[in-house]
Design a protein that fits this description.
Helices cover 46% and strands 11% of the residues. By secondary structure, it is of the alpha/beta class. Helix 5 packs parallel to helix 6 and helix 6 runs parallel beside helix 7.
Length: 437
């Protein structure tokens, strides 16, 4: 059956007032040497799109979904059908899911795995007939009460073992569905108080868990990227993978840096007190940028609001980092975003994705123009030019010493710095954004 009953979204151009049409996204349009579809690699997040019911700490679910009259495994099958209908309407090539998103847990782990396998078998049929692909899947190890104290960082060995079983099953599914990545998001891998936490043991166990997962992925021949998604807080007070810098430090300490890359989310960046482009830049310059969860947060609110991305300035700077990275390769732009509680009609799922896709398409064009015009490259070259000659060149080459710099500094007169010109740069970026079509 058809759940959305809507035609495939088409392109009408920047002048369109139709919320059911793209203004900027043209999959086949070439930007540089690749099409928009190849650059952006859009993905639909199964959880926020198909299972989110609108509930929050102050109100019960209010979303109107045409599949809600089903229950159990029948509900899971209806959502699966709706998922691929929506992917077709929006022309989105990829999707992502947690195991708990696609099937009911049942009364045991064995029953849960059986339910998931039932849906995966049907999912393969939809994938084969539609050409849609799995960007990544993951195991939900934070919702079930057994994970109240964490999964890989739990204080209970039986919980650790159960989490390992879920990840093994998830990696088997990733291999079976030819997933391009597998994600680890440690929703409860952290602590609420140091008073009852053995931080050293928990970090060691987390590293052992990740080594086991990487070893098993290699054993079964899974060739997708293994990704870790940083987040600073919520639900725990302090999560171990707070941000890019913390996560990369952890990976290097435990010799995991060659086996994992990062899946970065805009809203997680702002929760950590960073901009999205900051996190992307740090991951990029360290060769750790793997994939992106595309959303935005409300800076007036202190929790993860997971809004659809419409901030063109932020998205342009994000796409600048992604292009400078040489693209996302096996990664993609997954809309880990949910409609607002007041946007409760099924049709809102379509218009929200259209807005997010258009924003990233526009940001892609603007970022490409910034690179082609060398707007920021020329600024950096000029600003750091003293490190390309003389004593600066010696510093960069590692030839300078404290003694040599001491002697050099004593010969200097007054040092004349240059203006950073932040305001004019921001204005220039705006000029570029609003000039591209």
């Amino acid at each position: 059956m058809a759940y959305f009953k809507h035609a495939k979204i088409g392109y009408e151009g920047p002048g369109s007032n139709n919320p059911m049409a793209f203004r900027h996204y043209q999959p086949e349009q070439k930007i540089g040497h690749q099409t928009m579809e190849e650059h952006l690699r859009f993905s639909m997040a199964y959880w926020h799109t198909l299972t989110f019911d609108g509930s929050d700490p102050f109100g019960r679910g209010n979303m109107l979904r045409p599949w809600d009259h089903f229950t159990g495994i029948d509900l899971a099958k209806a959502r699966l059908e709706a998922a691929f209908e929506l992917l077709e309407i929006l022309n989105i090539p990829f999707f992502c899911f947690h195991d708990i998103d696609i099937a009911p847990e049942g009364d045991s782990l064995a029953t849960f795995f059986k339910n998931v396998d039932t849906i995966v078998d049907e999912m393969k049929g939809y994938m084969n007939s539609s050409g849609k692909k799995l960007l990544w899947n993951t195991a939900n190890m934070f919702t079930n009460p057994r994970y109240v104290h964490g999964a890989a960082t739990t204080n209970h060995a039986d919980v650790f073992a159960t989490a390992a079983a879920q990840v093994k099953h998830g990696l088997d599914i990733a291999k079976e569905l030819n997933g391009e990545n597998y994600v680890f998001w440690g929703g409860r891998e952290g602590y609420e108080t140091l008073l009852n936490t053995d931080v050293a043991l928990e970090l060691d166990n987390l590293a052992k868990f990740l080594h086991m997962a990487a070893d098993y992925a290699e054993k079964i021949g899974f060739t997708g990227q293994l990704l870790i998604e940083p987040k600073p807080k919520e639900p725990t007070t302090h999560q171990y993978d707070t941000d890019v810098a913390t996560t990369v430090s952890f990976l290097r300490q435990y010799h995991l840096q060659d086996r994992f890359r990062l899946n970065l989310e805009a809203n997680h960046a702002t929760l950590a007190g960073h901009t999205f482009e900051h996190e992307l830049r740090l991951a990029r310059i360290q060769g750790m940028l793997g994939s992106v969860d595309a959303n935005q947060g409300d800076t007036l609110v202190g929790w993860d609001t997971d809004e659809f991305p419409t901030d063109i300035y932020s998205v342009t700077l994000a796409m600048y980092e992604i292009l400078k990275n040489g693209g996302l390769k096996q990664g993609g732009l997954n809309f880990d975003a949910k409609v607002r509680r007041g946007s409760y009609h099924a049709e809102d799922l379509i218009t929200a994705h259209v807005a997010g896709m258009d924003t990233f398409a526009w940001g892609l064009k603007a970022a490409n123009a910034l690179i082609e015009q060398r707007v920021l490259d020329s600024v950096l070259e000029e600003r750091y030019e003293t490190f390309s000659t003389g004593v600066g060149k010696d510093i960069v080459a590692g030839k300078a010493t404290l003694e040599s710099l001491h002697d050099y500094a004593l010969t200097l007169g007054e040092i004349e710095n240059q203006s950073g010109r932040q305001e004019s740069l921001k204005a220039k970026i705006q000029d570029v954004i609003y000039s591209v079509r």
